[in-house]
Amino acid sequence: TTVPSSTFNSILSTVFASSIFSNVAAAEDEMIEVPGGTWLMGTSAADGRDGESPVRQVKVESFQMDKYPVTNEDFREFVRATKYSLILLFVFPSAPWWLPTWRAFWRQGSFPENDTAEDGFHGVSPVSAFPAQNSYGLYDMLGNTWEWTSTPFRGSQKMFVLRGASFIDTVDGSANHKAGITTRMGNTPDSASDNLSFRCAASTL
Fold first, then answer.
1. Is 75 helix (H, G, I), strand (E, B) or coil?
2. Residue 197: which H helix or E strand, with range?
3. Which of 126, 127, 141, 199 is disulfide-compatible with 68, CB 3.0–4.6 A?
């Protein structure tokens, strides 16, 4: 669902005035300025999938993006500060996104059925566990969790694009998705998993 800008600004004001950030300057410190420009997006590789192809020229205006993906702690503080209402989801075995309990946790073993923890972490790693992957100082842009975008994904149902791949994907694509800078997939907005995340971005702050 698209949030009206007035509502979004109201949420931001509430969050910035709360104990999450001592002041707006502190909030700005967590956002990185990304300069606008024209660049080539996509891939010409034969194995491109989910709309990765073809390579096309894209113009992007300057914007700001969170240094890290939103963490559970961040969201908990947001809920406390705004009294955000959470709808509890119970067991729905017939739902397409429901996994049996035995598959809810990735155990050591043969990848990708189990998480081999080669990076030292079982499943998702802390957002600051590894150095920034780019000159802007943005962390976790590839390989830890897929990140939601506001870009619609072409399909028969309402879906949005996710970027970045996750800890259950591989560089060569031998398991799940091929993790790379052009990797993308689509998913319905009600989808949830421990390998999906998001970070905040804004044209101005």
1. helix
2. strand 196-197
3. 127
Scored b (16 or more CB within 10 A) or e, 143-178 reads bbbbbbeeeebeeeeebbbbbbbbbbbeeeeeebbb
pTM: 0.69
pLDDT tens column, 17-63: 444 443 334 445 689 999 999 988 888 877 777 677 788 898 989 99
Q: Of 5-14, 40-49, 119-128, 149-158, which gets the smallest average pLDDT?
A: 5-14
Residue 79 makes CB contacts below 8 A (sequence gap 6+) with 86
**Does the domain at residues 5-202 carry the CATH identifier 3.90.1580.10?**
yes
Residue 147's beta-bridge partner residues?
A: 163, 197
Q: Which residue has the tokens 């969050």?
A: 15
